[in-house]
Design goal:
Layout lengths: L18 H20 L2 H8 L31 H10 L11 E2 L36 H15 L12 E4 L2 H10 L4 E7 L4 H8 L3 E7 L10 H11 L1 E7 L11 H9 L6 E5 L32 E6 L12 E4 L2 H14 L5 H7 L5 H28 L13 E5 L10 H9 L3 E2 L1 E2 L21 E5 L4 H21 L18 H5 L4
Parallel strand pairs: 1-10, 3-4, 3-5, 5-6, 6-7
Antiparallel strand pairs: 2-8, 7-8, 9-12, 11-12
């Protein structure tokens, strides 16, 4: 059974006056934890992947997979590559994806849903669009984004967005990278758990010194604004990075709490808010469909409040393959992002930017938003109901996003940790995401069994209902096997070699 080392117990070695013995006890506890990690086959496979070796725990040997090119350092994967590699080792391929339930995918279903307007099946390609687009994006699309935010969130406010407040980028990660590239040496606060790519962004852009805060399940994973204000004063925090609505917990900061968070931008602090799930808001009884969330509603002056919003067509419009996204913020930020984009990514796809313009019409957006919320709320309720019948109660059901943050601690070992649960479901042709990928830990110094995300997996209800039922059936089979045969069948016999070369197309079959 995997257990974290026992902490806080008073023994003769920890009494005051015996510092040497005390530190021996501390080192012994660390060694015990390390042994526990290495005794798990799922954890060993994870550690053997490039970029995942622990640092500053024990002396490391050279990993030839990471040292083949002098000066190259593996940043570790965001979960997409690792989980796809493991799925491919178990028989997954892009061609046979229909035989698998991908409850790990970080993308919504892209096909038709009830009452939603049809999306383009083909797009025109004017001759001018064969040229490079500006690194800030096509002006007409920037105007459409600004107008949409003004209509949805800036009614009655004197300060309005214009195209000069918008930068079009080729995907959310590109937007994050552009922003990170123009930030100077600062302390950057972030929360655990949160979106997996923040780990690599904070690790790659060394001028952002990461300052973590672990959010408590008991407190509904809420951000402590009062404590954050104190940290700004005492630690000199200059940047706060967060997703809202929150990936992977499915919670959302709104109303007065969001207003207070935005107000921090007036205390010499920049807020970077990832708002990709802003439409995935599920109304409670008596509330209306069609509401959405954005910090733009609480900004006083769009050019003075240092709030950076990242969003795009990927989630809300259900068009992840288009890679058309935007960064919204003060004018002087957009100028800087144009410069960083010129050497980072070169800009977004020109014809698709033109095709996206009519899709940002506010009346069209409202129709699609209501259809999306009704459809995904049905899927959420269906998944939660089936999990509950299996004895897997979700402590805090998602009120936003399309993710369920599932705590496995009630299950017997070794199924009670995310990595082993993930490996067992791969045997059943089902993909989930182990919780440790949402433990934003750029230095990789934390032992896996000590991670606050160790006992969790993220389940996505983004895919179509039939795929969700395939995955839920697989979870049911694993739990039934545990009840019938005990725990001996679990925790071992995982495939580690791949039959054939992994292609880029295979990786694209699993979206993180």
């Amino acid at each position: 059974m995997l257990e974290a080392p026992r902490k806080g117990s008073l023994t003769p070695m920890t009494r005051p006056g015996t510092p040497i013995e005390h530190w021996k006890e501390v080192v012994n506890d660390m060694m015990k934890a390390y042994k526990h990690e290495m005794e798990s086959e799922a954890h060993r496979i994870f550690r053997e992947a490039a970029g995942h070796k622990p640092k500053a725990v024990l002396p490391q040997t050279v990993n030839p997979d990471e040292e083949t090119v002098p000066g190259i350092e593996h940043p570790g994967s965001t979960g997409v590559i690792y989980c796809s590699d493991r799925a491919i080792a178990n028989g997954f391929s892009y061609a046979s994806a229909h035989d698998w339930a991908n409850m790990g995918q970080g993308a919504p279903e892209v096909g038709p849903i009830p009452d939603a307007l049809p999306r383009p099946q083909s797009i025109p390609v004017p001759e001018d669009s064969l040229e490079y687009a500006p690194t800030t994006g096509v002006k007409a699309l920037r105007e459409a984004v600004a107008n949409l935010y003004n209509v949805q969130y800036r009614k009655g406010k004197e300060s309005k967005y214009t195209y000069e407040n918008v930068c079009i980028v080729p995907g959310g990660r590109a937007g994050l990278s552009r922003v990170a590239a123009v930030i100077s040496n600062v302390y950057c606060a972030y929360q655990i758990p949160d979106y997996t790519a923040y780990d690599q962004v904070l690790g790659a852009f060394k001028r952002l010194v990461p300052i973590p805060t672990v959010l408590d399940q008991e407190n509904h994973y809420k951000m402590d604004i009062k404590q954050t204000k104190k940290d700004i004063r005492t630690q000199g925090l200059s940047v706060i990075l967060a997703s809202n609505p929150r990936n992977p917990t499915g919670q959302v900061i709104k109303g007065q709490e969001l207003d207070e968070l935005v107000a921090l931008s007036r205390e010499s602090t920049t807020l970077i808010l990832d708002e990709f799930y802003s439409w995935y808001i599920y109304p409670e009884e008596g509330e209306e469909y069609g509401q959405s969330i954005s910090s733009a509603e609480y900004i006083k002056d769009v050019n003075e409040d240092s709030v950076i919003i990242i969003n795009g067509l990927t989630k809300n419009w259900r068009l992840p393959g288009w890679r058309i996204c935007w960064v919204l913020g003060p004018k002087n930020l957009i100028t800087a992002l144009s410069q960083s984009g010129s050497f980072l990514d070169g800009g977004a796809n020109h014809p698709l930017q033109l095709a996206a313009i009519p899709m940002l019409d506010p009346e069209r957006v409202q129709i699609d938003k209501i259809a999306l919320q009704k459809h995904f709320k049905r899927k959420r309720d269906h998944v939660l109901k089936r999990l509950y019948k299996m004895g897997l109660k979700v402590a805090h059901p998602p009120n936003s996003t399309f993710y369920i943050w599932l705590n496995l601690e009630s299950l017997p070992a070794p199924l009670n940790n995310g990595l082993t649960f993930f490996e067992e479901l791969l045997k059943e042709k089902t993909i989930v995401i182990p919780g440790i990928f949402f433990d934003i830990n750029p230095a990789h110094r934390r032992n896996l069994v000590d991670s606050p995300c160790h006992h969790f997996v993220r389940l996505s209800f983004g895919p179509p209902m039939k795929d969700l039922d395939m995955g839920l059936d697989a979870i049911h089979r694993v739990l039934k096997k545990a009840r019938t045969h005990g725990m001996k069948p679990f925790g071992h016999s995982y495939k580690t070699s791949l039959d054939g070369e992994i292609t880029e197309e295979d990786h694209d079959g699993i979206n993180g």
